[in-house]
Amino acid sequence: MTESDRSIRRLENLLFLVLVTVIAMMMRVYLFPIESGDYLQFLHPWYETLRENGGLLAIGMDIGDYMPPYFYILALLTYLPLRDLFAIKLVSSLVDLVLAVFAANLASDGQRLSRRWMAVYCVVLFLPSVFLNSAVWAQCDAIYVSALLAFLYYVHRGRSHAAVLAYAIAFVFKLQAVFLAPLLLLLLLKRRVRWKSLWILPAVYLAACLPAAVMGRNLWDLLTVYFSQAGQYNLLAMFLPNLYTWLGDSTAAEISRAGVMLAGGVVLCAVFFLWRLDFELTLDRLVSLGLFFALLTPFLLPHMHERYYYLADLLSVVFVFRFPKQWGIAFTVCMASAYAVCHNLFGTDFFPVELLGVILLGVICVLVRHLAAILPRREAAA
Description:
Layout: H1 3-31, H2 37-52, H3 68-77, H4 84-108, H5 115-125, H6 128-136, H7 141-156, H8 160-173, H9 181-189, H10 200-214, H11 219-223, H12 225-230, H13 253-276, H14 283-300, H15 310-322, H16 327-346, H17 353-374
């Protein structure tokens, strides 16, 4: 193929991506008028409080249980001549594009505009859990998941500081970034992420809190917002298909505390035995480990919301493009996650969530078998 032919091919690819992007955004715009329960109960009151008190001048108010960076975004949106519902969903939908780019970069190892890159980009934009999250639910999960995909990509590229910065950004937007905390620990033990890069985590966290503190909010409350958030819900099972769906509407605090210990113990065992294995951390293995922890951690933890397999959805898409024969894993994860999301948004209820939890346990077991096949069985030298 001549250079001229390659230039024409690149132009065709770009035009195709532009067309797909426009269609994906138009689809979202048609969904914008839908008002979700989270918008009515949380987002709209937060936005109105910020708007009525001067936008950015109000970021020091104790408004909600999110970390300050999202309130900074909401405060900026109050200056736009748009209805808050549309402005909030527009921001989340634009981040969907960023999410698609990072997923495509990770799946294709940075080979932009390759067939794999374009295929992943398209799949992510039309993945139900993605467009329902942003354009219907008005949630912002694409922000922290984009950062976590960037974290994995920079780890693979050997850029320790950039990887920890990406993880820190994910964490200051959503506590669910802890789903990959076991992988971060493993990478530190394997020395793929340098310990000296960890200063970035508290630095970013503090920097995220400072503007709100300067504007009057209590700094200690800001630094401990996730502890307050963790104790907000009593239900052990919140329709995420996991270990606790078998317990119905239980709110037993004893089971909750025991469940957290169970999750911590199982995850710690997994990290320990993976650390003791001597293997090169290739992109395929990194993606597989990322998907494993993105599924295992919310499966074992109590109080998990319906959308908490969002990260697993995206990593399963990346995973299936690295391992096409494992398409069943990605299909099952994405379908289970979409069903849980639709239950919240539309009252969908045609399949027992308890059985879905068992199916996902089977998926985790299959993934463990996959890891056993791609990881060496010899221990690292002492």
